[in-house]
Amino acid sequence: MSAAPERTRDAVSADASERGRLPEGEGGGEQGSPRGADAPGGGAMSAASERTGDAVSAVLGCEGLCVGYQRTTIARDITVSVGKGEILAVLGPNGAGKTTLLLTLAGFLRPIAGRVTIDGHDVTGSSARRMNRAGMVLVPDSRALFTTLSTLDNISIARRKGGATVSEVMDLFPRLRARAKVKAGMLSGGEQQMLAVARALVQGPRALLIDEMSMGLAPIIVEQLMPLVRQVADETGAAIVLVEQHVHLALEIADTAMVLVHGDVSLSGKAAELRDDPAALEAAYLGAATASGSQPATGKEPEPIGTATSSADPPA
Description:
Elements: H1 5-20, E1 58-69, E2 72-83, E3 87-91, H2 98-105, E4 113-118, E5 121-122, H3 128-134, E6 136-139, H4 151-158, H5 166-172, H6 174-178, H7 189-201, E7 207-211, H8 219-236, E8 239-243, H9 247-253, E9 256-261, E10 264-270, H10 271-275, H11 278-285
Parallel strand pairs: 3-8, 3-9, 6-7, 7-8
Antiparallel strand pairs: 1-2, 1-4, 4-5, 9-10
C-alpha cells in the first residue's frame, strides 16, 4: 500500500481550520464520509507492506486517550501505536469500552482527553468526515450496508481514487463475485461481513477499524474470515485495530493485543505471548492481571471470558 502523506497533511490542515470554529465541548463530528471519485485515497490492494520486525513506523497512534460520552468516561489512559501492516487486537468483556474506543478513533465521538495521530499528524478531535479523508475507515458491528442495493453497487459507491479496485476485493472475497447482483439485505451474515470489509478496502484505508467482525456468525465462518484480515494487513499495509470476542482466533492473526476491563487496560503485549499465557489472559479478563505491564485491577465484579457463537451461517 503506497503511503499518502499529502492526503493526511491536507486533511489535517483543513481540519485545523474547522476545529478553530468549533465551540468548546461540542459533541461528535459529522457522520458522513466523502464518496466522490476525486476524493483522495490510499494505496491499492496489490501493494505489499514493508514491515521489518520492530522497525515499523506508526500509522495510527494514541496517547493517554480517554473516551466516553460527553463527561462520562468509559475507557481511560489508552496508549497504543500500530504500524504499517500491523494488527492490534482489542479484547475484553462486553461493556469494557472497546466500541467506544473505535468510535472515538473514527471521529464519531470526541476524546475526553489525550491525542490521536495518523502518520504522525495530530488529528485529535477531528470530525468523522475529516478522519475518513485522512485514511481512518471504520467497519462497524452493524455493517451499515445499503440493504436495498446490490453487492456490486455497495462496493462501487464507496470506492475512491487510490483504493482497491472492485475486481481486487472480489478476488479477496470470491463469494461476493458470485453474489454481485444480489441485494445486500439478501446476503448471509458472513457474506454481509465480507461486503462490509470490501467496502472499506475500496476507500484505501491507512488505518482500518473493525468492530466485532464475528458478531452473529457461526464459529466456522469466523475461522474463515480471520485469516483474510491478516491477508489484508499484509497486502495493503493498513494498520488494523480489531475488536473481537473470539479471543484465541484474534490472537492467532494479531501482532499485538490489549485487554480492556471496566475501561482500564488490564493487559497488553505481543499477541503470541498472550496466546501462550492463558493464565495471565484469564486473570486480565477477571480484572486482576498481575503480568508485567498490566494495569492494576479495578476491584469491580469480574466478568467471564465470552465467545460469541451462532449457527446463523452455513459453512462456506
